[in-house]
Design goal:
This protein has 295 residues and is an alpha/beta fold. It has a single domain (9-293), classed as Aldolase class I (TIM Barrel), CATH 3.20.20.70. It has helices at 30-43, 64-76, 114-124, 147-159, 171-182, 206-215, 231-240, 264-277, 285-293; strands at residues 9-12, 47-50, 52-53, 60-61, 82-85, 92-94, 104-105, 128-132, 136-138, 141-143, 163-168, 191-196, 222-226, 244-247, 254-256, 259-260. The strands form four sheets. It has an eight-stranded parallel barrel with strand order 1-2-5-8-11-12-13-14, surrounded by eight helices. A four-stranded antiparallel beta sheet has the order 7-6-10-9, with no helix packed on it. A two-stranded antiparallel sheet has the order 3-4. β1, α1 and β2 form a beta-alpha-beta unit. α1 (30-43) runs parallel beside α8 and α7 (231-240) runs parallel beside α8. InterPro entries: Aldolase_TIM, BKACE. Its cofactor is Zn(2+). Keywords: Metal-binding, Transferase, Zinc.
Amino acid sequence: MSKRPPVIISCALTGAGDTRSRNPAVPATPREIADQAIDAARAGASVVHIHVRDPETAKSSTKFAYYEEVVQRIRDSSCDVLINLTTGPGTMLTVPTDPPFRVEPIADAELMTPQERVAHVVKLKPDICSLDVATMNFGEAAFVNTAQHLREMAAQIAQAGVTMELEVFDFGHARLASHLIGIGAIPSSAYFQLCLSIPWGAPATPTVVAEMQRLLPAGAKWSAFGIGPEQFPMVATAAILGGHVRVGLEDNLYVSPGKLARDNAELVAKAARIIEDLGYEVATTDHARNTLLGA
């Protein structure tokens, strides 16, 4: 076996996109999300990344009661998986091509203040929460996270005692996150999630991962994922380059070409096999807790 540290698997359970219509296995109700979190942990995930959805429509939601129910169900189980709540919703907007050029939230979404975006994190105090370090074209929409908003959100997250996972989608985002750590606006305990092959961010290639890693602070902890068909190649790439990995139905609906995944646990199990076939060890939750939280 390789002497590299064990590889932490994170599982992104459901996301915010209209994906349940393309794979009915995508969880939507709080119970479905919590049950798939527990099953993913049994398959080898140490961290579960959580969005919530409206149980009736399966569309993205930011309702506190849904977050609360998912978190409580996981905590009431015997599963000790690390809970990672998103702070991403409330940032997508469109800009008309004809005047007046007033930005508007995308359909089924509302722009949210920094305080609103972290309110559920402050109340529920998960182990981890995401912090998107990205202002960019995101498909046909704009994804907006200004430095001022990031500083305000980071201050509240830190005060709540929650570890930050910094989502970076391109090289400049890695530089900005490193700068915010350097000036003390984000704690040095934060770790990085390299989000690759998302339109229109950095592509999922070994060269890109290596260069993004070079831009991170010395000794920074990091993980990476690719979306769609890039998911499992990126598991191997990140593991080989010394990072951790993320899989899940938020990012990819297929377990193999043309075959829909039956649940998140199936994706986690495949990632675990790839890691072990490379001669590496899949991290336990205790190891992940010590590595990411310093606990």
